[in-house]
Every structure is written in structure tokens, then in C-alpha cells.
Write a structure and sequence with these properties.
The protein is an all-alpha fold. It has seven helices and two strands; from the N terminus they run αββαααααα. The C terminus is likely disordered.
Length: about 200
């Protein structure tokens, strides 16, 4: 079944839920680092949004959070919000969520049969880490004035934590997929359990 590009009521509900998940993960706080860019859990929510909702609905959920932050609501990690977040050292990472969630969704959901572990993990790493870093690192360099190479080197401190978040996103998404596929924003050709039985 081909997913509709029109948002239905249940799609809007999913978008709202994942936007809320991203915000709630920000409430968990942040771990300050010497680079000025804290380690947060919100990228875990971005990864999950891309996997569960796909690129179109996933980016809608992320845009909801970005817009709410822009109008001043404290929806980002540490309770931050306002136009200042778009000119601070975290601006590149924040804006990187937008293409990041799209790439995550495109890779993780590239099989018509549903989700499988390697695609989900690859999507989380490429979209949720590599793409976000591709905007975040130059953003830090631009705002702080430090050389791009130094900015890239300092970002390495985030890699272990982000890989853990990618692994957690993969495990959570696959567990939910097996337990309740309708939670995802596309119809599978068959339930995971049915596909396993059919292969025996």
C-alpha cells in the first residue's frame, strides 16, 4: 500500500506525539561540554521520528519543535527557546535535525516490507548523526570563530553518546514494530510475525 502524502487525523496525532517526545527528551536536561554545545537526548527523538513517521511526517514533527522554539517556548534541552537559539553555537545542530530526520526516514524505511535492523540502524547513524554533524560542526565554527578542523575535532566527544542513542533508537523502533506495526505511519505488507512464519 502506498502511503498518502495527505496528512490525515491520525497522521497529525502521530506528528504531535513525536514532537512531544522530542520536547520531553529535552526536559531530561543536558550534559555541558567544553565546546559550548551540550550533549542532549533530543536527537534520540529525532531519530525515532524519522524511523516511525518517515521523511515527510518526521520532518513535520521536527518543524513543530523548531517553530515552537522560534516563538520562544522552552522546548529545547535545558528549557531554552527563542530566536537566540538560531544564532548560538547549537544553531547548526538544531537546523541539522531537519535534513537529518528526512535522511533517517528515507534509509530506515527504504524496504516496502517494513523495518529491518540494518536499515534502521544505518538510517539513525547517517541521518541522526552524520547529517546533523554536517551542519552542526560548521555552525559551531561560524559562531565561535574557531577553525573548522578544530570544531570537527571537538565534536568527536559526542560520537560515543550519539552512537548509543542510535542503538537505543534502533532497539526501540524494532520492538515497537514487532509489537504494534500500526503505530508506524505506513501499512506493512504483512505483520513481522507473519513474515517469520511464512519463511519457515
Amino acid at each position: 500500500m502506498t502511503p498518502s502524502r495527505r496528512f490525515e487525523a491520525r497522521d497529525l496525532a502521530r506528528i504531535a506525539i513525536f514532537a512531544a517526545i522530542i520536547v520531553v527528551l529535552g526536559v531530561a536536561g543536558e550534559i555541558p561540554l567544553p565546546t559550548g554545545v551540550p550533549l542532549t537526548l533530543q536527537t534520540l527523538g529525532v531519530m525515532l521520528a524519522g524511523i516511525a513517521l518517515g521523511p515527510l511526517r518526521g520532518v513535520a514533527a521536527v518543524l513543530v519543535v523548531v517553530v515552537l522554539a522560534g516563538v520562544g517556548l522552552p522546548v529545547l534541552s535545558g528549557g531554552s527557546g527563542g530566536l537566540g537559539v538560531f544564532v548560538g553555537p547549537t544553531a547548526g545542530y538544531l537546523l541539522g535535525w531537519i535534513p537529518g530526520v528526512v535522511v533517517t526516514g528515507l534509509i530506515a524505511r527504504s524496504s516496502r516490507a517494513g523495518l529491518d535492523a540494518w536499515r534502521v540502524a544505518l538510517g539513525a547513524v547517517v541521518g541522526g548523526i552524520a547529517v546533523v554533524y554536517a551542519l552542526g560542526i560548521p555552525g559551531v565554527s561560524l559562531v565561535t570563530g574557531i577553525p573548522l578542523a578544530d570544531s570537527a575535532l571537538s565534536s568527536l566527544v559526542f560520537v560515543p553518546g550519539d552512537l548509543i542513542k542510535a542503538a537505543v533508537a534502533t532497539l526501540l523502533a524494532l520492538a515497537l514494530w514487532r509489537a504494534y506495526p500500526p503505530a508506524f505511519a505506513f501499512a506493512p505488507t504483512s505483520r513481522p510475525a507473519e513474515r517469520e512464519l511464512a519463511g519457515r
